[in-house]
Amino acid sequence: MSANGLSYYADPANYEDHSEQEVKYTTCYMCACRCGVKVHLEGGKLRYLQGNPDHPVNEGVLCGKGSAGIMKQYSRAKLRAPLLRKPGTERGAGEFQEISWDEAMQMLTERLDKIRSTDSRKLAFFTGRDQMQALTGLWAAQFGTPNFAAHGGFCSVNMAAAGLYTMGTSFWEFGTPDWDRTKYLLMWGVAEDHDSNPIKIGLEKVKRHGAKFVAINPVRTGYAAIADEWVGIRPGTDGMLAMAMIHVLLDRELFDWEYLVRYTNAPNLILDNPGHEDHGLFYRQRFPDEPPEGPRDGSKMGGIPMVWDQHVNGLARQDQPDTAPALFGEFTGPNGEHLKTVMSLMAERYLDEAYSPEAAAPITGIPAETIERLALEMAHVAFRESIEIDCEWTDWAGRKQDKFIGRPVSMHAMRGISAHSNGFHTCRAIHFVQMLLGTIDVPGGFRSKPPFPRPVPPRSAPAGGGIQTAMRPDTPLEGVPLGFPQSPDDLLHDEDGKPLRIDKAYTWEAPLALHGLMHMVISNAYNEDPYPIDTFMTFMANMAWNSSMNTLGVQEMLTAQHDDGEYRIPFVVVADAFHSEMVNFADLVLPDTTYFERHDCISMLDRPISEPDAVADAIRYPVIEPDRDVRPFQEVLVDLAGRLKLPAFTDEEGNPKFDGYQDFIVNYEKSPGVGFLAGWRGEEGDQHLLGKPNPDQWDRYIENQSFFHHPLPENLRFYKGWNRDYLDWASERFICSSEPIIMQFYSEPLQTFRLAGEGVSSGPKPEDPADRERLRTYCDPLPFWYRPLEQQRVSAEEYPFFALTQRPMIMYHSWDSQNVWQRQVLPYNFLYMNRGRAAGLGIPDEGWAWVESHNGRIRVQVKHMEGTHPDTVWTWNAVGKQKGTWGLNEDAPEANHGFIMNHLISELLPEKVGERPITNSDPVTGQAAWFDLRVRITPASEEGIWPEPSAVQPLAGQSEAPEVLRYTSRAQGGEE
Fold first, then answer.
1. 93, 640 contact by CB (below 8 A)
2. How many CA atoms lie less than 13 Å away from 586 in the CB half-sphere?
3. In 3-state terms, what secondary structure has residue 95?
4. DSSP label at 213?
5. Alpha helices in 68-122 (DSSP H)
6. CA-based nearest residue to 801, from 837, 771, 848, 748
7. Which residues, listed in sequence order, are joined to residue 674 by a DSSP beta bridge?
8. Any residues with CB less than 8 A from the CB of 627 and at least 6 apart, and which?
9. Which residues are paired to 216 by β-bridges?
10. 121, 145 contact by CB (below 8 A)
11. Which of 804, 870, 802 has the alpha carbon at shortest distance from 840?
């Protein structure tokens, strides 16, 4: 052996002895990618992790987050047993006593049973990034509470709503750029934590193929750092940039005429009848053969939308293949109606000088010539560098085609767009650019993943829509808690106009709140507005820290009491695997497993791992046994459902139908032959996607490395919303209809809400002037740009900086703050600031500064950088922690040097005289407006973070942390 020992390690056998190791396969849970993981075990313990080279998502790649999953298993922060707040102690003090699971389940069952038999709304059940909303949503609906949602309301609902109400799919997990064929890629507001392995694999392809990659982001980190062009935009102005691009495309007539006529509602006729209840609606006529499930635009309005046929110079049905619809024009109907095409209305709006590049430049901070150049570059690639794939396919009208035509321009967008109160219209405008260029679901463009696209708008309204007084005792909801309103008739108000949901979703304040308003639950429950609740149950949502605006205020709300000493929120149940800040505010703690210790289903009914060319789903199963008294929350829910006798989970005698979660996943059918897992169905396991339950289904997945992958034939891979063969195939499995999915430039549902705000609708109308104004202004059927709501009420002179957070590539949400490997990379955070602006304020590199908003004040350490917009400051989210949590030592840098921006943000808009408190959210969807924050920054003479929240008590029985943790090779002595 040489002096430095290198020759010893030249032989891999000396580095790691594999002879006593075994390999199992599961699905990663360190972010939303859901990559395949190859787990190496030794002596029943995790030894190391690798990416699964056979897995369709990551193709063998495993990022730093995924590799660090092993340290989640060995975390000191793991909860070890059910906990009950000690009698006589204050909520938030962290004084718990361990109880048995029998005691915990009995206590919870009795409480929930009483709620369900009296007023099911008194249960508020809100979950975090659980990746199993199909189960949690079903459970809530069966319980009968409308008060259910997952984290999407403070994360991605603008993305989902804008996409699903426009084109039947969306950014995020429902679609992806065609990485193999695209020649021009724009990424809008994409941080590096989400979907990271597929994006990194895709970007490598983009760079290798010589495609141009443009990153639109106020900050140049992560993916933007390798972009061919970085467009450092002002936060919250992306919509103006997209609409200026639309201006250029329309002005130069650079759009795909045939694509717009065949696949969008651009030629549809709109009634121009101001002051009347049909103003701005599609001009429709009724026909005997109208499809029973509604017209082909996906809405529930009666009649077929009409177009102006240039062959006959008269009206014609939109859904007939032999028409030649006029794309532009004003026409007169048979009874003198004044009609305009959707495309004409778009031209009137976006050709206005208010949306020109010259007008957009001072708003976005991007030169007009750059805006124009980007639009022209995209058009050049779309129309001069188009691609063709020879393949016979049949369109929705039965027309045989011999090729797929591709416009190789693609886009991707995430929370930088979504987390603004103008994000819904911004995201729709980005889709408009793609639709004008004909790049949706084509080779080289943005492509949908099965089970998307779906009808536009989706056809399931939220359960309880219309005027109701209350939910019925001991009765499931008649539908799903989270649905898709098409008109004011679908909103959730009681007969007095009060919201039926505690978060006020699906009301005049947030009509298309598809994911709920999770950030408002604690505040509304504290204020008993619109009513008091009894129990707040949450899973994997750190609502006492980084998942809440106004963090210290929310902690006070969780501990607030009435004059009689009873808590304003009577009972709090927290399910989590780790000692997060939220755990200390629980009355009952249900300890979850890690993802290595449980069964999970990444389902087609939820957020699957499909790709555009294949249907795919996956599982997790226990690769190791828990060493604690913990249970998977999925098992807890199925158990509770049986105890509470929820109908979908019990037989006619009230006995449980399912022997736990595994049995439920195998045997529950949403419809005949359609279940949670798509692979190896049928009694013999020889059917895929559709078939009877297979008792050995879990085993088949485990044998196939824990995933199912079903490639689509080539003729089904493109133009999915208008491809007859795909629509017929998908209608039996994923979607409710085989009718073509017509993309909607003009959103008729939004116009119905605007008519209600104008007071001309014959249906429900709001009474509050604030609601009427919001509906009139923001429920516009065509996107428009406006300053974010909070910024309309905060002085830009007094608060000159935009303040943002983003998540680093090595972490995701707050899950990894305790992870010893990831902590070495990022143990605390700075406030990052443009070097020139910081120097101008007299703040040196690594100097300290006060950051103030209209809602609060923090002291932080500043780090200079070049790659940030001069008016923008930002930091990494969820790095700062509260002392005593997450198994961290008292001197942990996360708790002593790290900080969170949430102290500066309010869940409510700044007050306006005479107006009720209104949520700081997108006025259409209720999306939490995290990124609308404006601040002022001044040098601080003192050092150290402020405020310093009081330390919480570490959990009893928590192990002592070693001074040094070694997890190394066998040759170096192994684990200590």
1. no
2. 28
3. coil
4. E
5. 69-73, 101-118
6. 837
7. 671
8. none
9. 188, 231
10. yes
11. 870
Alpha-carbon gap, residue 892 to 517, rounded angstroms: 33
342's enclosing H/E stretch is helix 342-350
707 neighbors 701 (Cβ within 8 angstroms): yes
- The alpha-helical segments, DSSP class H, found in 536-646 are 551-559, 633-643
pTM over 0.85: yes
H/E element holding 467?
strand 466-468
How many Å apart are CA 165 and CA 769, to the nearest integer? 27
SS3 181: coil
Torsion of CA 346, 352, 353, 355, to 10 degrees: -30
Residue type, 170: S
**Residue 971 corresponds to which amino acid?**
A
Spatial distance between the Cα atoms of 519 and 502, rounded to a whole number of angstroms: 11
Distance CA 480, CA 605 (A): 13
Q: Which two tokens stand for residue 174?
A: 């429902």
Cα–Cα distance for residue pair 252/582, rounded to 1 Å: 55
Q: What is the dihedral of CA 86, 87, 93, 97, to 10 degrees?
A: 0
Could you tell me the two tokens for 607? 């957020």
Distances (CA, A) of 401 to 371, 388, 474: 36, 12, 54
Please tell me the distance from the alpha carbon of residue 878 to that of residue 823, in angstroms, as a whole number: 12
Identify the pLDDT of residue 46.
94
**CB of 321 closer than 8 Å to CB of 333:** no
Portion of the chain with pLDDT greater than 90, in percent? 81
pLDDT digits (tens, 9 = 90+) for 261-318: 999 999 999 999 999 999 999 999 988 776 655 555 545 667 899 999 999 999 999 8
CA distance 152 to 686: 36
Three-class secondary structure of residue 702 per DSSP: helix
| Amino acid (1-letter code) at residue 781 | P
> Which residue type occupies 490?
D
The answer to whether residues 34 and 618 touch, using CB atoms and an 8 Å cutoff, is: yes
Cross-strand pairs, 591 = 576
Selection from 461, 456, 519, 517 nearest residue 491 by Cα: 461
For residues 344 and 179, give the distance between their C-alpha atoms in angstroms, rounded to a whole number.
34
Q: Which residue has the tokens 């995020």?
A: 172
Q: Dihedral sign for Cα 291, 678, 160, 504, please.
A: positive
Query: Which residue carries 């008091």 as its tokens?
Result: 532
Of 311, 2, 59, the residue nearest 199 (C-alpha): 59
Strands 96-98 and 229-231: unpaired
For the record, the structure tokens of 187 come out as 């990424």
Distance of alpha carbon 135 from alpha carbon 149, whole angstroms: 12
Q: What single letter denotes the amino acid at residue 767?
A: E
Contact between 809 and 853 under an 8 Å Cβ cutoff? The reply is: no
Average pLDDT over residues 700-707: 98
